[in-house]
Amino acid sequence: MKDFAKWENTRNGTILALITTLLYIPSAIYFFKYSKPHSIIHLEQSNISTDKFLIGYIFIIFVVILISSIFGFAWAKKYGAKGFGSLYDIFYGLKYILIGGVFSGIVYYLLYTKRLYNIAPDTFPDKVSPVVIIIISNSIFEEVLFRFGIFSWWLRVIPKKFPPNQGLNMALITSVISCTIISINQIYFSQGKIISEMLINLIIANLIFNLIQHIIYIKYGLVSSILSHIISYLRILLLF
To answer: Model-level pTM?
Structure first.
């Protein structure tokens, strides 16, 4: 835990967490104010302030992202991943970033996004501008949480079973974990409108997507995985 407590890692983690949280706020406001998941509907029916709930939610997001950010700065490079990454890493891995992002985006669109839109169109924004904001903010948020945070933590806690040179094995394991969390989150925000066969599609799409993202993160770093995530997320624009 010495690396976690280092001032440099705490400082860098705090800066990244603040930036990530600020960028995520527009996306959170959209989902809570307009998409309205089940919990918010129940809050409104109980006459509980959604604004206070939203403030509390954003604070929790900041704390979670802060911990994830420090995890990444403390352990990513030390245990075999590329770490935060750089513009050089993007240039070096640009071909794989583009291919990975486009491929996972197409798979996700065909298996899940288009079908969900047909079933529950109200869960999607109806204008391009909020879509762009959501794509960028969600991509950064999810990559900092799942790759920089959770994946770096996994690299640290089980290095004996999966040493750094076996990153693909780690990518497979953590893809299942990320897939589970994201699938639950998707069900929550879609207000329970996903039928059983759609859930299977969601799981398959998430497994493929997260495996690709983990591999890109290992080889080229967080900045590259964010770019790949944004490219994959552009599938939403196909709905317009």
So the answer is: 0.85
